[in-house]
Amino acid sequence: MASTAHEEHGHGHDHGGDHHHHEEHFVSKYIFSQDHKMIGKQFLMTAVFMGVVAMLLSILFRIQLAWPGESSDFLSFFLGEQWAPNGVLKEDMYLGLVTIHGTIMVFFLLTGGLSGTFSNILIPLQLGARDMASGFLNMLSFWFFFASSLIMLGSLFIETGPAMAGWTIYPPLSALPQSVSGSGLGMTLWLISMVIFIAGSLIGSLNYIVTVLNLRTKGMTMTRMPLTIWAFFVTAILGVLSFPVLLSAALLLTMDRLAGTSFYLSDIVVGSEMLANHGGSPILYQHLFWFLGHPEVYIVLLPALGLSSEIIATNSRKPIFGYKAMIGSILAIGFLSFIVWGHHMFITGMNPFLGSVFVFTTLLIAIPSAVKVFNYITTLWRGSLVLTPAMLFAIGLVSTFISGGVTGIILADSALDIALHDTYFVVAHFHIVMGMSAVFGMFAGVYHWFPKMFGRMMNTRLGYVHFWITIIGAYGVFFPMHFVGLAGAPRRYYDSTVYNEFDQDTFAMIMDLNVIITIFAIFAALGQLLFLFNFFYSIYRGPKAPQNPWDSTTLEWTTPVEHLHGNWPGALPEVHRWPYDYSKPGSDVDFIPQNVPLAKGEEEH
Amino acid sequence: MEKLIILIVIILGAIALAQLIRVYELSSKLRKSGEHEINNKDNHINGLLMFVFMILTFVGFFYLMLKYGWTGRGSAASTQGVETDWLLNLNFIIILIAYFITNFLLFYFSYKYVRKPGVKAYFYPHNNKLEMIWTIVPAIVLAVIIILGLKSWTKITSPAEADAIRIELFAKQYAWTARYAGLDNELGKYDYKLTTDNNELALITSNTIDSSIAIMGKEILSLTKLLNNRDTILNDSVIVVRRNTLSVKERLFRLVTQIKENHDKKADAAVWDDIIQNDTLYLCKGENYEFNLRARDVLHSAYFPHFRIQMNAVPGMTTRMKLTPNMTTEQMRAEKNNPNFNFVLMCNKICGGAHYKMKMIVVVKDKASYKKWMAQKNKETFKMKYFPAAEETATPKDSLIIKPLI
């Protein structure tokens, strides 16, 4: 069996003993580690750092939006004279900040950080495997991610500025250096960084898929896998199928930029320069981009939903309601996510009939999403809730998933999208889904599995304060933003002063709301300092964690607190039941771990 | 100095926090409770806070709704927009019902079912009937949404009526230009290669072709001279760039001569009566319009917030949208109680640094004053403005052609 072969491999690395792993070299233990737990932590650290940078960028442009044209020491401190002369942000840099904020958040924090971290840590541990199918490829996947992070960060510091065409980098703006300064070297670095990122993501995803299919321990059938694993598994499949398409889009764009091809360019006069390119179509790029872009939303969201399923079940002390329906809805969402990309393109000049098809498929996604929400709510019903910080974030995730989901119904309706496309309504919608739901999922995961990752506990009280600041701050940012959008304000505007020329009342309203939003944003950002403090402090000084702090049923809590290469000191555990035997009638304890054999006369649920 | 003080305060704050945590940890060690054991008090407080938070968000929502709800854009000023708003309101009612019910249940349950000593959770793994209900009910509601939405979508995006007034909206970094089709209601043809300073929209007439050929010929000639000049020493990379520019120009030149070969002089008439309008777009209440959208450099989006219509302008292709204004600017000013209010056309697709400034004021007039304005405009056609002596100066074929140099 595959797992026996792997067992040998695992022991080979820790020299056949439990205690020898302490003697590993610093480099092979902390840097070029092939241990999935260490790689997961490396992903997490990198992503946290990238997340902090992206959050800081957002505060910089929020200051400009709330107090346009006013001098700010904060801006001049971070951006200097070149990009914020006299403390006033430059137009081009505003676009640069928005672009890099979006790119980092979507790809580096929520793809690398969420799926990268938790797939790595949880897949082998929850399946009862010694490690990933290929430790080496796994290491490679992290180092690609790390290199692409460095390049993306580096692009912020070059003279012509970072990419400025929005995170979707639509050509021709992104293809023509004459059209905006960031489309020169900045764009080239963006493309290089993303190509490396995609390579890393592919290697990682293939590894996850192979591990889930081949390295489950004895008794761990597919329908006994925790929902986290189901979510990571489907996420990895989505990544493998969609990221190559983004790669092709990026390559064609690179060809247009460097080799004079005309994939996306046709009949263009930029400034006073007439180009000879003819026959390409910018809409082709949009199709390719969103063929990744929409599954990407679920690559971001599914892991968060998986983590929260696990956390909500554990802390409700109840089985997740409708386990099979949850799996079904993950699969349905995964499948549908591939045939909805056109809803980003209703008004791009795409054939309206094609638009109608995408309306239909997109609104179908609401059904499995609704099933998930109702199942979460029913799981809470008559539970015995333990409100750990992780649990609070998981419940917050469900709330934001609803709030962001229902506005999606409006935007998926092409007739309504005409009026709301590219307004702040869209920004509010996808930030509630990705910026709140997915980030809440990530926080929930960190609080819940921190004891597994670092062997210590995070401070609960600080966790509570962090949660309340975050949810109040984030809702305070994105709730009012819907109304800015309903007032018609376009996104990616350096400021809204143009309204002064035709509608002064609406201008006043937009500015009122912008100030409120920015204040909440700063409040929420400061709240994250508590998290950072708690996180790093607890790594070194937190109280030692017990083996199974949350009385959970899944296999990762059967491993010793001290990490060892190969995860289990002795034989691999054997699985006898599904992962949600909480408060099972007839049992004295309120949880039965998966590796406990069925009692005499006990029926599997 | 200020920065230093701030830095010191931050560091001291972090140290203070660390000490507080230390004290807290020592005390919980004395009480012998670990971080993983959530006591009933904490549990209860957070459950209660969940419920309070729900009430606050609901109240906040209603406050924002009442204060800012539908005020921003005012009522829809086009027949298309009226339909959109109706549908939007209906959809909002549906999603708000879903939002309030589910959020209420979520937060209420988090509050109500907080762990109580002696109460065991209820083992309830699944219930097929319930799951069927919440699959089918959303499916039915969505069917309604889809059907109504597609009906409206088909109507709004269907081809314009035959009598619709044709207007071209031409987008470039960072301005809009409108071109009225003139008396014949037919937009003259264009080709981007004919772009020159006095033919910004690259319209095709015998004269514009000839003047393009003349200008291009001159440019090619001067570039060739520069490259062949043995007195100046150019650095290699400059030469490469210039040679590339030259080859592009020659290619374009050949293509323009082809246009000339294929051009039928009869098509000039459709162009000559077109009217180019740079600053303000004038429309007539109750008339049907068809906008033809074009972009010169990068993507732009023609967004009329008050009419609720929007369509991207894409380099290399023409996109279209319909509009029937149903309110004059004066009526909207009265409704908004703001004598300075104006309709607007904004750019709504990121197009470069000054994207946010790219707009055009739109004025909707009633029939009488629109007619008056149009009558005046018909005297300022493309021909009268840029080629007043066109018929006379039309030169015999080939006289101005400068033969390609390589």
Task: Write a compact overview of the structure shown.
The complex is a heterodimer of chains A (605) and B (406). With 605 residues, chain A is mostly helical. Chain A contains 17 helices and 2 strands.
Detailed description of the structure:
The complex is a heterodimer of chains A (605) and B (406). Chain A is an all-alpha fold and 605 residues long. Chain A contains 17 helices and two strands. Chain A starts with a helix and ends in a 64-residue tail after the last helix. The model of chain A is unreliable at 1-21 (pLDDT under 50). In chain A, strands 1-2 form a two-stranded antiparallel sheet. In chain A, 63% of the residues lie in helices and 1% in strands. Chain A has helices spanning 2-13, 26-31, 36-66, 73-83, 91-127, 135-154, 185-214, 227-258, 282-316, 323-336, 352-364, 366-380, 389-412, 414-420, 424-454, 460-486, 504-541; strands spanning 269-270, 273-274. By secondary structure, chain B is an alpha+beta fold. Chain B folds into three domains: 35-116 and 123-157, no CATH class; 165-182 and 274-365, Sandwich (Immunoglobulin-like); 188-273 and 391-406, no CATH class. The longest helix of chain B is centred in the N-terminal third of the chain and has 34 residues, at 79-112. In chain B, 36% of the residues are buried. Chains A and B meet through helix 5, strand 1, helix 9, helix 10 and helix 11 of A and helix 1, helix 2, helix 3, helix 4 and helix 6 of B.
Strand content of chain A: under 5%
| Major sheet of chain A | 2 strands, antiparallel
Q: Which chains make the largest contact?
A: A-B, 141 and 129 residues
Biggest β-sheet of chain B, characterized? 5 strands, mixed
Number of helical segments of chain B? 11
Rg of chain B, rounded, reads 33 Å
Overall strand count of chain A: 2
The portion of residues forming beta strands of chain B comes to: 5-15%
Low-confidence stretches of chain B: 392-406
Mean pLDDT of chain A: 92
Overall form of chain B: extended
Radius of gyration of chain A, in Å, reads: 24 Å
Write down the overall mean pLDDT of chain B: 89
Write the H/E string of chain B, N to C. HHHHEEHHHEEEEEEHEEHHH
Determine the oligomeric state from the structure: heterodimer
Q: Give me the side-by-side strand order of the main sheet of chain B.
A: 3-2-1-5-8
Cα separation of the termini of chain A? 28 Å
